[in-house]
Design a protein that fits this description.
Helix 4 links the parallel strand 3 and strand 4. It is globular, with a radius of gyration of 20 Å. It is of the alpha/beta class. The strands form 2 sheets. Strands 3-4-5-6 form a 4-stranded parallel β-sheet. A two-stranded parallel ribbon has the order 1-2. Helix 3 packs parallel to helix 4. The longest helix is centred in the first third of the chain and has 12 residues, at 10-21. It is built from 8 helices and 6 strands, in the order αβαβαβαβααβαβα.
Length: 191
């Protein structure tokens, strides 16, 4: 897996749900992260689920070291697939490295909008046209996220995962809560 940051956001929550739902002897997740010096969000939870972390030097610190560490990590043949989670196509080194070593790639778009800085927007535009993206299996959290990342190419929408069970309607619970609040059968409109 690639895409964790120290900031708890949608990617981190999605990956946590994914790993939790696939927890067991049939799956093992290795996670790369490049915010070295700052632990990834939910690190302890991921470790408790058996995940292994592989820090990679950020490209802004040293692009050469970043590529060398990715090469070292992916050349040993231990990965079945790279699930690359991204907000933009501005950084494709892990995707290119995985494909170079015949590791299938799932490229997962989590954003429908642009990076804030001009250099990142330029890199995204260039990266979006990369053959590496076309060689990957492409998924997105929504159609707008797919268009943002993949342009006119094809992709599958897999909405951010969550467990819907706690939100399912329960008539008995409704009756109990309304009774506890003294609402009876009156129409209540809340905001």
């Amino acid at each position: 897996l690639h895409g964790l940051s120290p900031n708890l956001g949608g990617i981190e929550r999605y990956l946590h749900t994914l790993v939790h739902s696939l927890e067991g002897p049939d799956f093992h997740f290795d996670i790369t992260h490049s915010d070295v010096g700052r632990p990834p969000a939910l690190r302890d939870d991921f470790r408790a689920m058996g995940c292994t972390f592989h820090p990679v030097t950020p490209r802004a610190v040293s692009a050469r070291r970043n590529r060398r560490e990715l090469e070292s990590l992916m050349s040993v043949g231990r990965f079945d697939v790279l699930h690359f989670n991204a907000m933009s196509a501005s950084y494709l080194a892990p995707v290119r490295m995985a494909l170079h070593h015949s590791i299938p790639v799932i490229f997962h778009s989590h954003s429908a909008g642009g990076p804030p800085s001009l250099p990142s927007r330029v890199l995204h535009t260039v990266g979006r046209a990369s053959p590496a993206i076309r060689q990957a299996s492409r998924i997105a959290v929504s159609d707008p996220a797919g268009r943002w990342m993949f342009g006119r190419g094809s992709w599958e929408v897999i909405e951010n995962g969550f467990d819907p069970a706690p939100y399912e309607f329960d008539q008995e619970r409704r009756r109990r809560v309304r009774s506890d609040l003294g609402l009876g059968d009156r129409l209540i409109i809340g905001h």
